[in-house]
């Protein structure tokens, strides 16, 4: 008889490999896709979001610490990632609702070259800020488990909410939970 390892002993590789089958959802207590809209999970202890300075697509540096006082959605993604591709249109729709509500959305592309990112974003008519994390330094510091991984930092820069895997970002429940961090 095979015994299962406790969640703390599951390797990162096993967690990522099992994401497609829903293993990650059960281990991390994340609702399965069939359970309705996938919501955001509270981050235990609300640790400080690690500071980073990354260039945007125009070469301007954006520093996370400079955004204190605003709710910041930090989405780690890549052009080769199917769930990332799937959530981009809903992120654009969410951005249209959030940008006037003291919320900043940062899509942090992990690895890759700016030319391929431009082509990808043009396909989806993206207007929200996109940053480039060539060395994956910010992604590692923020403890991404797979792509996409998204954190929502409160106005004090603490990781308040997270999503592992794609979401429909314009779902009213997700928008409400993000905006509630401003209250």
What does this structure look like?
29% of the residues lie in helices and 21% in strands. A six-stranded mixed beta sheet has the order 1-8-7-4-5-6. A two-stranded antiparallel ribbon has the order 2-3. It is globular and about 40 Å long. The N and C termini lie far apart (51 Å).
Contiguous low-pLDDT stretches (5 residues minimum) are 1-36
Largest sheet: 6 strands, mixed
Average pLDDT metric: 83
Shape: globular
Please render the helix and strand layout as text:
Elements: H1 12-18, H2 23-27, E1 41-42, E2 53-55, E3 61-63, E4 71-77, H3 82-98, E5 103-110, H4 114-124, E6 130-133, H5 137-141, E7 149-153, E8 159-164, H6 172-179
Brief write-up:
With 183 residues, the protein is α/β, with parallel strands linked by helices.
Can you give keywords for this protein?
183 residues; alpha/beta; 6-stranded mixed sheet; two-stranded antiparallel ribbon; 29% helix; disordered N terminus
């Amino acid at each position: 008889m095979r015994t299962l390892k406790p969640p703390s002993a599951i390797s990162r590789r096993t967690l990522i490999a099992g994401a497609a089958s829903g293993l990650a959802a059960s281990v991390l207590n994340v609702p399965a896709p069939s359970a309705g809209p996938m919501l955001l999970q509270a981050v235990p202890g609300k640790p400080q979001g690690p500071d980073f300075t990354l260039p945007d697509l125009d070469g301007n540096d954006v520093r996370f610490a400079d955004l204190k006082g605003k709710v910041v959605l930090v989405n780690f993604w890549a052009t080769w990632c199917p769930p990332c591709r799937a959530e981009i249109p809903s992120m654009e729709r969410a951005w249209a609702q959030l940008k006037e509500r003291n919320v900043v959305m940062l899509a942090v592309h992990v690895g890759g070259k700016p030319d391929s990112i431009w082509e990808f974003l043009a396909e989806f008519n993206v207007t929200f800020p996109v940053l480039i994390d060539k060395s994956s330094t910010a992604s590692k510091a923020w403890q991404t488990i797979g792509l996409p991984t998204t954190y929502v930092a409160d106005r004090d820069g603490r990781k308040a909410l997270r999503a592992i895997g794609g979401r429909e970002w314009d779902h009213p429940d997700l928008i409400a939970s993000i905006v509630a961090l401003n209250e």
